[in-house]
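Lecture notes, part 5. Sequence design as translation. It can be helpful to think of inverse folding as translation between two languages: the language of shapes and the language of residues. The source text, in C-alpha cells, appears below.
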C-alpha cells in the first residue's frame, strides 16, 4: 500500500483552546486583511532587446506570468491558470533569444507562450513531468530537465515539443541548470553527485560528440550557477572553496581556472554584462544583499546600491545601458526596479505596496548578537516596538541552510506594531556567515541549533521591558522543528508557548515519507539513516514529548512534499498520549508554506490569538 496513512483537513485540540482576547484590538492602521493582501511581484526576466519584462505575480489563488514594458507600465497577463507556487521554489520564466517566446513551468510541465499573445502550449507531453527550460541560441531548440532512473537528466527538444534527445544518461547524480554556449555547440551544467552530496561539480558537455569535461569538482565543495561569457571564452561560476561563496572563472577547455572575487562576503547571484567586461553581482553582507559591479579583468568591486535591504535577480539590457532588479526591505515589499548606467538613476517599475500599508509606521530591525551555550556568537535581527507590551517572539528561520536578512516580513511588522519584541535568530547552520558556521549543525540537527534558540530566550530575558514568562517561539519548516525541539529539550521552560508551522519531530519517519530531493537534502547534513541512524535519533525530539510543559499550536498543509503532513500527525499523536495541551489545524489545499490568502488569513488569525492568549497578561 503506497500511502496507508489517510489524512483529511481537520481541527483538533487537547485542553482548553486559546481564545480571542476581547480586550485587545489591532494596532492602529493594521489588520490581518491588510497584511495578507499583498500580491508579490517576483522572478522577472528582461527580454533580449531590453524592451519587455516578464515576471510572476502571486495573487490570492494563482501565480501567473505577466508582461510589462521595461520602462514601466501596465502588467499584461500571459497565463490564467498557473497554480500558486512558493517564490523560493519557483522557476524564472525564460526568453527565447529572438524575443518571440517565453518558456515557463505550469502544472509540472514546460509551456510556451508567444510574447505577442496567445494561449500557452505544453511541449513536454513525452514525459510525466519536466522543468528548467532554457532556449538554445537558435530560439528553436530548448534544454529541459526530467527525472529518469532516480536522477534528474537533461534533454533537448524544440518549440514543437518534438521527441527529445537525451543529453545526459549517467546515474552519477542530478544534472541541473544547463546553459548553452553562445555558438550552441556545448552546454555547461551543475552535477550534484550522489556519492558526495556536499559536492556540486561544473561540467561541460559537447552536444554533438557527447564528450564531457569536469571543469570544476572538489570533494565536499559546492559549485553552481555556471554562466558563459558573451564571447564564449570564459565560464563563470560560484564556488565555496574558501570560507565564502566566490566567483571563479575557467576556460571551456578547463584551463585558466582562477578566483575572481575575494571580498570576505558571499556572492549570492551574478550576471555577465553584454560586453563581457563586468558582472552585476549581489553580495550578501551580513543579511544585507547589496548590488554591485565587478570588473572581470581585476575583480575590483563598485557598489551600486547598498544598505538595509535585499536586492536580487539582476538583468542587463542588451546594450548594457541599464539593469533591472528586484528589491525589498523591512520597510518595503518586493517590487521591480530599473537602474540607468552609468548615472545610477533608479526608477521603480511596479508598486505592490498598498496605500494603507505605506502610511503605517514600520520598524527597521537592528543586527544583534548573543552568546550560545558554547560561547558561539549567534547573529540575529531584532525588531523593537515603539511601545513594548512586555512580550517577545523568537523566530527561527527555515532551511536550515538559509538566513534571515533585511527582507520584507509583514508578520514581524504586525507583531511589532502590537508591541511584541521580535527576534529572528540566525542559529548555527545559517548561511551568510562563512562555511564553518554553516556546517556547525552537520551531524548535529536538533542539538546545538536548539541551544541557540533557547539562548535567544535567555538573551531576551535581560531586556528590562520584557517579562521573562512572556516569551514564545514560532517558526516554519526547520523553524517549526526548532520550535518542537525547544519545547521538548528545555528543562528551564524558557518559552511560554510555541507555534510549529509544517515542522518535524521524527527525522527517521519524515525521511522515509518525504520526496526524493528532501531525502537527499537531509542526507547532506546527517548522512543516510542506514549508516548514521544515531544522528537521526539524536535529532528527533518526539522521544522527549513527555518533557513538553507548554501549549503548542501545530499548522500543516496536506499537500506538503517537503515536510510530510504525517510529521505533524505523528507529533500530535505523541502529544495526545502524554496529555499535552495543543491545537492542531490542517489545510487540504496547501503545500509547504501557506499560499492561499484565505488560508494565510486563518493561519495568522490563529497565531495571533494563540500568542495573545498565552503571552499577554490576563
Amino acid at each position: 500500500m503506497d500511502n496507508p496513512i489517510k489524512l483529511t483537513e481537520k481541527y483538533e485540540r487537547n485542553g482548553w483552546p486559546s481564545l480571542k482576547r476581547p480586550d485587545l484590538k489591532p494596532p492602529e492602521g493594521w489588520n490581518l486583511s491588510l497584511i495578507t493582501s499583498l500580491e508579490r511581484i517576483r522572478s522577472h526576466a528582461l527580454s533580449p532587446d531590453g524592451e519587455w519584462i516578464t515576471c510572476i505575480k502571486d495573487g490570492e489563488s494563482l501565480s501567473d506570468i505577466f508582461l510589462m514594458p521595461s520602462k514601466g507600465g501596465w502588467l499584461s497577463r500571459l497565463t490564467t491558470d498557473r497554480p500558486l507556487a512558493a517564490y523560493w521554489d519557483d522557476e524564472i520564466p525564460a526568453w527565447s533569444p529572438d524575443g518571440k517566446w517565453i518558456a515557463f513551468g505550469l502544472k509540472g510541465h514546460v509551456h510556451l507562450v508567444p510574447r505577442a499573445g496567445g494561449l500557452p502550449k505544453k511541449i513536454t507531453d513525452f514525459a510525466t513531468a519536466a522543468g528548467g527550460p532554457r532556449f538554445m541560441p537558435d530560439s528553436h531548440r530548448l534544454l529541459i530537465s526530467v527525472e529518469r532512473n532516480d536522477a534528474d537528466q537533461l534533454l533537448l527538444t524544440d518549440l514543437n515539443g518534438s521527441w527529445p534527445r537525451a543529453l545526459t544518461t549517467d546515474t552519477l547524480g542530478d544534472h541541473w541548470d544547463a546553459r548553452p554556449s553562445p555558438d550552441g555547440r556545448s552546454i555547461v551544467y551543475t552535477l550534484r553527485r550522489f556519492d558526495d552530496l556536499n559536492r556540486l561539480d561544473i561540467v561541460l558537455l559537447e552536444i554533438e560528440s557527447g564528450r564531457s569535461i569536469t571543469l570544476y569538482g572538489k570533494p565536499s565543495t559546492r559549485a553552481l550557477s555556471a554562466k558563459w561569457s558573451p564571447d564564449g571564452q570564459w565560464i563563470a561560476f560560484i564556488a565555496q572553496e574558501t570560507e565564502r561563496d566566490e566567483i571563479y572563472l575557467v576556460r571551456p577547455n578547463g584551463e585558466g581556472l582562477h578566483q575572481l572575487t575575494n571580498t570576505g562576503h558571499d556572492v549570492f547571484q551574478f550576471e555577465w554584462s553584454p560586453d563581457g567586461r563586468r558582472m552585476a553581482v549581489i553580495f550578501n553582507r551580513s543579511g544585507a544583499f547589496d548590488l554591485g559591479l565587478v570588473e572581470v579583468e581585476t575583480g575590483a568591486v563598485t557598489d551600486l546600491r547598498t544598505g538595509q535591504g535585499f536586492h536580487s535577480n539582476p538583468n542587463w539590457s542588451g546594450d548594457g545601458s541599464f539593469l533591472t532588479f528586484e528589491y525589498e526591505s523591512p520597510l518595503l515589499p518586493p517590487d521591480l526596479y530599473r537602474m540607468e548606467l552609468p548615472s545610477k538613476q533608479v526608477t521603480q517599475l511596479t508598486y505592490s505596496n498598498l496605500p494603507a500599508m505605506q502610511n503605517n509606521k514600520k520598524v527597521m530591525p537592528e543586527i544583534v548578537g548573543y552568546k550560545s551555550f558554547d560561547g558561539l556568537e549567534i547573529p540575529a535581527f531584532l525588531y523593537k516596538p515603539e511601545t513594548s507590551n512586555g512580550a517577545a517572539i523568537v523566530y527561527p528561520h527555515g532551511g536550515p541552510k538559509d538566513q534571515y536578512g533585511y527582507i520584507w516580513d509583514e508578520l514581524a511588522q504586525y507583531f511589532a506594531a502590537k508591541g511584541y519584541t521580535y527576534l529572528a535568530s540566525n542559529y548555527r547552520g545559517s548561511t551568510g556567515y562563512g562555511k564553518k558556521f554553516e556546517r556547525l549543525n552537520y551531524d548535529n540537527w536538533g542539538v546545538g541549533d536548539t541551544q541557540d534558540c533557547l539562548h535567544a530566550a535567555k538573551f531576551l530575558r535581560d531586556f528590562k521591558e520584557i517579562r521573562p514568562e512572556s516569551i514564545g517561539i514560532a517558526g516554519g519548516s526547520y523553524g517549526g522543528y526548532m520550535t518542537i525541539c525547544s519545547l521538548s529539550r528545555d528543562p528551564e521552560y524558557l518559552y511560554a508557548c510555541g507555534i510549529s508551522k509544517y515542522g518535524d519531530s521524527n527525522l527517521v519517519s519524515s525521511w522515509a515519507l518525504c520526496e526524493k530531493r528532501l531525502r537527499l537534502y537531509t542526507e547532506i547534513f546527517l548522512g543516510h539513516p542506514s549508516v548514521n541512524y544515531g544522528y537521526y535519533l539524536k535529532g528527533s525530539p518526539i522521544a522527549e514529548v513527555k518533557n513538553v510543559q507548554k501549549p503548542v499550536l501545530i499548522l500543516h498543509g496536506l499537500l506538503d512534499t517537503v515536510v510530510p503532513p504525517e510529521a505533524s500527525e505523528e507529533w500530535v499523536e505523541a502529544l495526545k498520549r502524554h496529555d499535552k495541551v495543543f491545537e492542531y489545524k490542517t489545510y487540504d489545499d496547501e503545500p509547504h508554506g501557506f499560499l492561499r490568502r484565505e488560508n494565510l488569513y486563518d493561519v495568522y488569525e490563529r497565531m495571533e490569538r494563540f500568542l495573545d492568549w498565552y503571552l499577554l497578561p490576563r
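The translated text above is only one of many valid answers, since several sequences can fold into similar shapes. The longest strand covers residues 332-340.
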